[in-house]
Design a protein that fits this description.
The structure holds two protein chains of two kinds.
Chain A (H helix, E strand, L loop, with lengths): L1 H8 L8 H13 L2 H27 L7 H7 L5 H13 L8 H17 L7 H19 L1 E2 L2 E2 L13 H26 L4 H16 L2 H15 L8 H27 L2 H9 L4 H16 L1 H14 L11 H8 L9 H30 L6
Chain B lengths: L17 H33 L30 H34 L4 H15 L3 H13 L8 E4 L2 E4 L2 E4 L1 E2 L3 H31 L6 H18 L6 E2 L2 E3 L2 E3 L2 E3 L1 H28 L2 H9 L4 H31 L3 H4 L4 H12 L2 H30 L5
Helix pairs in contact in B: 2-3, 2-7, 2-11, 3-7, 4-7, 5-6, 7-9, 8-9, 9-12, 11-12
The chains are: A mainly alpha, B alpha+beta.
Chain lengths: 370, 392
């Protein structure tokens, strides 16, 4: 409650006496009869909800110990379960002695994300850095690079799992989907009818069907399309589906940016004698992409959450791995803990991204820029 | 393609000509698409032949043997695959239609609450929105299924409203029994709606002509209630409300919503409503403060300001993103498979496992989803042009 009072006190900060704050609070929370009722109802809801939730999650919770101890006390959450299964949820079935590889991969990813948060560091070098990092991430996970063992033995993708797979799918889906999205967006605005209709068909068909059907198609139908004897790894097929999906959604965001750019920019570029590629690369795309960065981040959030859908074809991402951990006979009966933990992890990541996108939106919008 | 001949040395090569280049590029793309299709199609035929299957829709007439727990049409496992898929589609539609209705109501309600001047209320709603929007929908669906499964047994069913029971077996609600009276009442309701619309139009025209405002909503409400009741009286039957009652180990009477359906609907509505609430909030906020002040200066009441001035302008901003939320809800209903509700996707999945006719089933499924999306989008576009800014 104390922190709620802070923004109200702010306008009268010059001479904030106890009386003035109290008046402001009273007007805000009990100004009219209706407002008073609303305040009371809200307080009642909080009173009914918060103590049991906090009691379960914090005060009565067991943070360490065994399943038996948790079950004996059966009062609060058994976080010992998460403590026990945490690294399994991160690495899945990846061979124990090789876990340093996915661990390095996740650290590399975190460093890249950390660097990308600073707008001062946004440059071409950062994009090249991401490209290099994603190749390195792949080599770290797989262990080999075109058959050459670099980090020890190859680990087949069926042993990959946990948070590493979630990150892997998201990073590669976006890294490969992004260029495709730009091509699709440009194609959709092209004057060449065949190119235009091809891009429209791809974008609309992909956006018109659920992601699960596309994943399903990649898992079941794609093998039928390939010549006999040729197989593509299942994870990579899913990766392909996810890439197409993210490309179609990002393409519409990029198209918004292309449409939002004034005609004058196109005409000015042409009058300078730039050809199509130069015009797009040097004039149009930098502005269009920059304009839509907040929308892109929002799309990233949606796509990141959608990585959980791989559950339907039995790929072990973070959520599915946690669910699998529920099947451990020693640790039966703690689904709530697993789901709350998974929800919290996704929430922290997505909420962080969305707060960041809001800040970017503020910083990049022309009205607030001075 | 040799266009540079000795006679016109210095004339640019064909690839410097914009039209020729465009034509060549398009021809190449077309060729690539056709070639890829031919390549894939021939692979498909060899692969299917190797598995002892043939491409075609003949399997649709065969008996499916898929048990579908709840279906809107009479269905038994001995029915054909076509009928099983239809039952699945109807289950999808059931979730989509109810979902879109509920999501609109809940989303608008929450969006307005989010704008409340009471920080406690807007904060609570904001917390709900942020939590729901930033966690994956699959996780939420599984959560709701767990919630519905942890409900008490039938004997100790929760009874939140008279006639409504919540238990492990799902939700039981009272419904009207289907008889002649109910059929007549339905016709009466249609007449009532027509009469109400006509009355409102008359009042509108009257106000346009004279400026005098007629309060007609009580009359309209009267039409909507009395006409169905009167129509039901015309028949020998009576309107019977079938209320669920505990008999032995199960309920008798009423309509049942399975835990899976309830979990799916709850999960999707709660998830999508958070997005709709944000859309409604930003829509209302997009209408300038001056509009409120001007309407107050005209002496309009708060309710009429909202209805006549703010909402029509806010709708322009709200409708396009709202459409994509409806589409998202419909598409997300395919996640039913995660919690075991048999929608189109789930039935298709089983059909593929049983027949191996992956391509045909996926083709049907994707076409249906695509058509559903296009129909929803087209319908909402019609509505959008009606609310869009009329530029003169």
């Amino acid at each position: 409650m104390a922190d709620l009072a802070a923004p109200i006190a702010a306008p009268v900060a010059a001479r904030a006496t106890f009386a003035s704050v109290a008046t402001a609070l009273r007007v805000r929370y009990f100004g009219t009869p209706l407002n008073a009722v609303i305040t009371l109802v809200c307080l009642y809801v909080l009173y009914k909800m918060l103590p049991p939730i906090l009691g379960w999650a914090v005060f009565d919770a067991h943070w360490t110990g065994t399943a038996a101890q948790c079950r004996e006390a059966r009062s609060g959450a058994c976080w010992a379960f998460i403590d026990e299964k945490f690294w399994f949820a991160v690495f899945g079935l990846y061979p124990y002695e090789l876990r340093w590889r996915p661990a390095t991969m996740l650290s590399l990813f975190s460093v890249m994300v950390g660097l990308s948060l600073f707008r001062r560091l946004w440059s071409k070098q950062l994009i090249y850095g991401w490209l290099a990092a994603s190749v390195l991430m792949f080599v770290l996970m797989d262990g080999t690079f075109f058959g050459v063992e670099i980090f020890g033995t190859q680990v087949p993708t069926r042993l990959w799992g946990g948070l590493t797979v979630t990150v892997f799918i998201a990073v590669f889906g976006l890294a490969t989907g992004y260029p495709v999205a730009i091509l699709l967006a440009l194609g959709r605005r092209s004057h060449m009818p065949v190119v235009k209709w091809f891009c429209v068909a791809v974008i609309e068909c992909v956006r018109g069907v659920p992601l699960v059907t596309i994943i399903f198609m990649a898992a079941i139908m794609l093998p039928l399309f390939l010549p006999a004897g040729m197989t593509i790894d299942r994870l990579f097929r899913i990766q392909f589906a996810y890439t197409i999906f993210s490309a179609a959604y990002l393409a519409e965001v990029v198209r918004g940016g292309l449409q939002g750019l004034g005609r004058g920019q196109y005409e000015a570029a042409e009058s300078l004698g730039l050809n199509y590629a130069q015009k797009m690369r040097l004039i149009v795309l930098p502005q269009a992409l920059k304009m839509t960065i907040p929308a892109q981040v929002n799309t990233f959030i949606g796509l990141f959450k959608d990585t959980t859908l791989v559950v339907i074809v039995g790929i072990f991402d973070f959520f599915t791995t946690l669910r699998a951990a529920l099947g451990d006979p020693n640790w039966m009966g703690f689904p709530n803990e697993a789901y709350v933990f998974a929800a919290l992890t996704y929430f922290i990541l997505c909420f962080g991204m969305s707060k960041y996108s809001q800040r970017l939106e503020r910083d990049l919008s022309p009205e607030t820029r001075r | 393609m040799q266009t540079t001949s000795p006679s016109n040395v210095g004339a640019p090569a064909w690839w410097y000509d914009r039209t020729a280049r465009a034509l060549a590029l398009q021809a190449a793309l077309l060729f690539a698409v056709v070639a890829a299709s031919v390549f894939f199609f021939s692979n498909v035929q060899t692969n299917m032949a190797a598995r002892g299957l043939t491409l075609g829709f003949g399997f649709l007439d065969r008996a499916a043997g898929i048990p579908i727990g709840e279906s809107l049409i009479p269905y038994t496992p001995s029915n054909s695959y076509a009928r099983a898929l239809l039952a699945g589609l109807l289950n999808t539609l059931r979730v989509a239609v109810f979902g879109c209705l509920l999501v609109t109501l809940l989303g608008v309600f929450l969006g307005v609450l989010r704008l409340s001047e009471n920080p406690l209320l807007s904060g609570l709603v904001g917390a709900y929105i942020e939590i729901v929007r930033n966690t994956p929908v699959v996780l939420q669906l599984v959560f709701w299924l767990v919630v519905f499964q942890q409900l008490p047994s039938v004997r100790e069913a929760l009874n939140p409203l008279p006639g409504v029971y919540l238990s492990q077996r799902g939700l039981k609600i009272p419904v009207l029994e289907w008889n002649d009276a109910a059929a007549y009442a339905l016709v009466g309701l249609a007449l009532g709606i027509a009469a109400a619309v006509w009355t409102m139009r008359r009042a509108r025209a009257h106000q346009m002509q004279t400026g005098e405002y007629r309060r007609v909503w009580p009359i309209c409400l009267g039409y909507l209630v009395l006409l169905p009741l009167a129509a039901a009286q015309l028949t020998g039957d009576r309107l019977v409300l079938s209320v669920p009652e505990l008999q032995g180990f199960n309920f008798a009477g009423g309509a049942e919503l399975s835990p899976e359906f309830a979990a799916l609907l709850t999960g999707l509505v709660i998830y999508t409503a958070a997005f709709v609430a944000e859309i409604v909030r930003s829509g209302i906020q997009s209408v300038g403060k001056g509009q409120w002040e001007a309407s107050r200066a005209l002496g309009l009441s708060n309710g009429r300001i909202m209805r006549l001035v703010i909402l029509p302008q806010a709708l322009r901003v709200i409708v396009p993103p709202l459409t994509s939320q409806y589409l998202n809800l419909t598409k997300n209903s395919s996640l039913a498979i995660v919690i075991g509700y048999q929608d189109l996707f789930s039935v298709s999945n089983t059909s593929i496992n049983q027949t191996g006719q992956a391509i045909e089933v996926i083709f049907i499924m994707m076409t249906v989803y695509l058509v559903l999306s296009l129909l929803t989008a087209a319908g909402m576009n019609v509505y959008n042009t009606r609310v869009a800014l009329k530029e003169r």
